[in-house]
UniProtKB/TrEMBL annotation:
Keywords: Glycoprotein. Residues 30-433 form the Glycosyl hydrolase family 13 catalytic domain. GO terms for biological process: oligosaccharide catabolic process. This is Alpha-glucosidase. Coiled coil: none annotated. The lineage of its organism: Bacteria, Bacillati, Actinomycetota, Actinomycetes, Micrococcales. It holds the Pfam family Alpha-amylase. Belongs to the glycosyl hydrolase 13 family. GO terms for molecular function: alpha-amylase activity. It comes from Humibacillus xanthopallidus. InterPro entries: GH, GH13_cat_dom, O16G_dom_2.
């Protein structure tokens, strides 16, 4: 494996402000720490494992890694339930390990973004333990959202709010009061009307920024500001028919933006300023990009591409809408195909449009057996397309290996709280969190020296990094090639793919099944969703299949320079 990069990619801690905009066009690789690499054979990925694989990531050509939570956590929600925002879970390492990882990453030219989870803590957080031990109305309870119940004896929840993971968003405590949790019962929501909470997170941002982290991914960014006025307002529909005008009591309220304006002043204390990206699963609307305003977070995940199925009309619509919406606020444009929260995109694209993914997963992937070649072809094409779009692209670990969703995890091995909270109706998100394969053999396919915390299927071995490394037709080599070319074009031209200049135009391909778009200086990307090959004119710079020739096969994409 290639491990070294030219010295000019190294990032020094005193990078000048001129590099402050690096994130606008970056390729950012998401690491789910427990599933990336295990350095001490306990079956759990850790910071030492990540550190040992940094050369692999540098050689992939990415600009930054985003680490999902590595903080101390009882793991009720895969680490998004935190007991200490300023430490490392002992199973994953120490603060010294974190510093060493950061230093190595910077030496290799990689920036590091970390998750900040401000909506809730773990039920084991000292604050929550203190709240339970204190009486109703106490300052300890004021850090969370405690309320008396309704009904004659207070035995009904205070409101109809629902948890994203199923069931009521209220849990009763032994003394009869209830507390709010928009996710698992073990994740009590914080009260952002409390100044102490605001101060705590400002200090937490400084704690990590002082250590040198380059940015933050803000979990559930749209939920911090809630309308908690008495009586609590009804909010019966959590995921459907949500108001998109900021009037919901729980989501995307105007007041939330004030919080991010205060965070921006902290980010701008640093040189270069720290970046941030908001995570919001609120339905995408013209309000989504407001989080990306330059006096707020700068970027927001645009999940509309991730939510689109393999369909040219859907792809075209979301790309057009994203570019239009983003332009209104001059924020960073983002694209995502996969994450730790959704089935892997290779699998999604092999299923017919309209498939109920949850039902399919509940059948262990047997309701419809996917064609793996189709899955792989389409996933490669989508990646080639995404990397041609202006803005920044977020990759999820293992997608570069063309991994499919592990749809048949035995239910007694599932760890995602979604499975239990929905009464086993939904299998949850473990199928994309299975530890990734590095070698074709070994106890856990090179993930560690022994087992892995989620069982890996036999077929993982054939997708291993070492199997794909150096094989020109492999998915891994396609990612390396595409990312390198994207970087080259950006450096060479004012408006190549990925350039800061958001120049983008649809080109009429003459066939609605074939998408074609041009970047400012004439680069074009063509994606063939049709069942027939289409002719390619011009110089082919990159193609998602490894076939030579002047035809673009079905389910493939290419970058061309028209003549
Ligand atoms: C979004 C995270 O991506 C997801 O994994 C988590 O369960 C929820 N936020 C709650 O923190
Ligand atoms: Ca370990």
């Amino acid at each position: 494996m290639t491990t070294l990069l030219p010295d000019d990619r190294a990032i020094s801690s005193s990078s000048s402000t001129s590099s402050g905009d690096w994130w606008r066009t970056a390729v950012i690789y998401q690491i789910y720490p427990r599933s990336f690499a295990d350095s001490n054979a306990d079956g759990i990925g850790d910071l030492g494992g990540i550190r040992s694989r940094l050369p692999y990531l540098a050689a992939l050509g990415i600009d930054a890694v985003w680490l999902s939570p590595f903080y101390p956590s009882p793991l009720a929600d895969g680490g998004y339930d935190i007991t200490d925002h300023r430490d490392v879970d002992p199973r994953l390492g120490t603060l010294e390990d974190f510093d060493a990882l950061l230093a190595d990453a910077h030496r290799l030219g990689l920036r590091v973004i970390i998750d900040v989870v401000p909506n809730h803590t773990s039920e084991q957080h000292p604050w929550f333990l203190a709240a339970l031990a204190s009486p109703p109305g106490s300052p300890e309870r004021e850090r969370y959202i405690f309320r008396d119940g309704t009904g004659p004896d207070g035995s009904e929840p205070p409101s109809d709010w629902r948890s994203h993971f199923g069931g009521s968003a209220w849990q009763r405590t032994p003394d009869g009061q209830w507390y709010c949790h928009l996710f698992a019962r073990e994740q009590p929501d914080l009260n952002w009307d409390n100044q102490q909470i605001r101060d705590h997170f400002i200090e937490t941002l400084r704690f990590w920024a002082d250590r040198g982290v380059d940015g933050f991914r803000v979990d559930v960014a749209h939920s911090l500001a809630k309308d908690l006025s008495h009586p609590l307002r009804s909010q019966p529909h959590l995921d459907s028919r949500l108001p998109l005008d900021g009037s919901d009591p729980l989501y995307d309220r105007e007041e939330v933006h004030e919080i991010y304006r205060s965070w921006r002043t902290v980010f701008d204390e640093y040189d270069p300023p720290r970046m941030a990206v908001a995570e919001t699963w609120h339905p995408t609307s013209s309000r989504t990009y407001l989080y990306a305003r330059s006096d707020e977070l700068g970027q927001v995940f645009d999940f509309s591409l991730l939510k689109a199925e393999w369909h040219p009309g859907q792809f075209r619509d979301v790309i057009t809408r994203s570019i239009t919406d983003h332009a209104g606020v001059d924020g960073g444009l983002t694209w995502v195909l996969s994450s730790h929260d959704v089935p892997r995109h290779a699998t999604r694209y092999a299923l017919p449009v309209g498939t109920d993914l949850d039902a399919w997963l509940s059948s262990n992937g047997t309701a419809l057996v996917i064609d793996e070649e189709t899955a792989c072809r389409r996933a490669r094409a989508a990646t080639v397309m995404m990397l041609a779009l202006p803005g920044s692209a977020y990759l999820y670990q293992g997608e570069e290996l063309g991994l499919l969703e592990v749809a048949d995890l035995p239910t007694d091995q599932l760890r995602d709280p979604v499975y239990e909270r929905t009464g086993h109706r939904l299998k949850g998100r473990d199928g994309c969190r299975v530890p990734i394969p590095w070698t074709p053999e070994g106890g856990s396919f090179g993930f560690g020296d022994d087992g892995a915390w989620l069982p890996q299927p036999e077929w993982f071995g054939s997708c291993a990094v070492s199997v794909q490394d150096g094989r020109p037709e492999s998915s891994l080599e396609l990612y390396r090639q595409a990312i390198a070319l994207r970087r080259e074009l950006r450096a060479a031209g004012a408006t190549g793919p990925g350039d800061a200049d958001i120049s983008f135009a649809w080109v009429d391909s003459g066939d609605p099944q074939v998408l074609r778009f041009a970047r400012g200086d004439g680069w074009e990307c063509i994606v063939n969703f049709s069942a027939n090959p289409v002719p390619l004119h011009g110089e082919v710079l990159l193609r998602s299949d490894s076939r030579p020739g002047s035809l673009l096969a079905p389910d493939t994409a290419a970058w061309v320079r028209p003549v």
